Amino acid sequence: MKKFLIASTALTLSAGVAAADVTFSGDARFGVMYNSDATVGDANWNGATGNDSKTRLEKRYSLNIDASTTADNGVTFGARVRLRNEERSNAAATGGNTMGAGARLFARYQGFEVAVGNVLGAIEQAPNAYSRGTSLTGLSWGSVVFNVDRAVRDDAGVVTTTFRTFDWDAYSSGGSGAEGVEVLYSAGDFKGHLTYSHDDLRGINGTAKRLAAWGSYNFSGWTAALGFQDSNLDWQDKFFVSFDGKIQDFGVGFAAAQNGKGNNKVNKYVLNGSYTMGATTIAAYVANQSEAPDARRATTTETSKTSYGLGASYNLGGGASIVGGVERTTQKTTRADLGVSFRF
């Protein structure tokens, strides 16, 4: 009887697996980071209860669980969830808790894909938004044309918030994410992406909403893109253009964005480049924003409109690389990292 039950269970499980496709993938990294301006209580460095050490361990492990099935009419339905563990999973905990991401569910047919939940985000996925990587971790992400180190002002021009970045929808690796709706479309050399999110869709009280979209066209290895984000919060409005491509072993990209409007308008420009020789790639960027940020930390009294970074990676094969970089931020601080990253 026991053998019969085990056999029956195995058949049931195998039938479910045969009807769907479940895959596991992910990435990980480990190394060290340096911050010349580390201070006690900096949630972006050592955590709310951290110390003032300028060097710390860096580690991260992400596991994606993807499941999909294709209906008789050719429509593919699928979902993704992610588990992530790193050296500090939130501002108060430095021990490395494991976080679970909200699900992204989609329906795909030929060149169309409609998704809901923890969406990817149009701005996050815009071509050349994340210019050529210069480090293991991204450091301050000064190379991102939408990421402006800025103060937020009210209608009278009075500063209400001295730090505001990453003000767009993106897939969250440790939370529910935007809980929005998005449409992706691809046909030949054209690609498009539209995302909409609103607090009402999340079932919470609030008025925050975002509509973002872009379109791109690829020609002879070069990609041109144009897009925007519209929000009921002035500092979150965006309009951007980008251009990216390769000339033999050299890569080059340019992006420009108007971030915000009215008293909260800050323009930013990013130029990036790379050179590949065998297994080694060297990359660099320089970015300039139209407004210098306010100094935020006790050890920083001056700021700059310009940030720049230089990094390199060595491909070890099998999806693994040695990666490192150094960056000078708009807060006139130096950040650097070095380690190993790999995908599986």
Automatic annotation (TrEMBL):
Give the GO molecular function terms: porin activity
Q: Spell out the Pfam families in the cross-references.
A: Porin_4
Which positions make up the signal peptide? 1-19
Q: Which GO terms describe its cellular component?
A: membrane
User: What's the protein called, per UniProt?
Assistant: Porin
- Please report the organism this UniProt entry assigns to the protein: Falsigemmobacter faecalis
In its keyword annotation, does this UniProt entry include Metal-binding?
no
Taking every annotated instance into account, which residue ranges of this chain make up the domain Porin? 7-333
Q: InterPro entries given for it?
A: Gram_neg_porin_domain, Porin_dom_sf
What keywords sit in the KW lines?
Answer: Signal
